[in-house]
């Protein structure tokens, strides 16, 4: 009679926990990618606006009203870039925190899986020993029956 793995429920819970942590990490990583993409777009807008302003200055087509509007627009873009950089940095920290949490849960699960493997190996070895003992006992009993059935002077 084999004994079931006592930590089976704990291992099941660890597997579910690992799946949940992996899903959380994927969500935060997707959020990070979206924020990084938005940052890139803002930086492209800023670069494009700076290039347009430089071109207008180079050709001497500066309109004071348009220049003032461009400066306000650039100031706002710069503020948005700064805010987006902060958001990307915060999300980067969250991604790393979720990665660490997932690694911790994965280590815990792997430890439980090793314990389960060891338990199964021990059970298999124990079962093999019992079967070997039973086989030896049956062989011994058969040998004794054969010895009793032979006449006393006969040698095998």
CATH topology label = Helix Hairpins
Q: Kindly report how far apart the N and C termini lie.
A: 38 Å
Radius of gyration: 37 Å
Order of helices and strands: HH
Low-confidence regions = none
Question: Roughly how much helix do the residues carry, as a percent range?
Answer: over 70%
CATH class category: Mainly Alpha
So what's the oligomer here?
Answer: single chain
**Discrete helix count:** 2
Count of separate structural domains: 1
Question: Beta fraction of the residues?
Answer: under 5%
Mean pLDDT: 91
Major sheet, described briefly? Answer: none
Give the overall form: rod-shaped
Characterize the structure shown.
88% of the residues lie in helices and 0% in strands. The mean pLDDT is 91.
Characterize this entry briefly:
By secondary structure, the chain is an all-alpha fold. Helix content is 88%, strand content 0%.
Relevant terms:
156 residues; mainly alpha; Helix Hairpins; 88% helix; 0% strand
How are the SSEs ordered, and which strands pair?
Blueprint: H1 8-59, H2 64-149
Helix pairs in contact: 1-2
């Amino acid at each position: 009679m084999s004994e079931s793995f006592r930590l089976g429920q704990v291992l099941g819970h660890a597997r579910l926990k690992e799946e949940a942590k992996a899903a959380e990490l994927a969500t935060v990583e997707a959020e990070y990618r979206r924020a990084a993409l938005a940052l890139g777009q803002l930086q492209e807008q800023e670069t494009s606006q700076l290039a347009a302003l430089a071109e207008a200055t180079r050709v001497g087509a500066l309109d004071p009203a348009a220049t003032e509007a461009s400066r306000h627009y650039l100031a706002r873009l710069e503020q948005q870039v700064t805010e987006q950089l902060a958001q990307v940095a915060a999300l980067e920290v969250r991604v790393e925190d979720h990665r660490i949490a997932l690694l911790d849960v994965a280590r815990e699960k792997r430890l439980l899986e090793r314990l389960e493997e060891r338990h199964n190996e021990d059970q298999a070895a124990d079962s093999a020993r019992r079967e070997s003992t039973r086989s030896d006992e049956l062989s011994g009993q058969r040998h004794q029956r054969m010895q009793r059935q032979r006449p006393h002077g006969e040698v095998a």
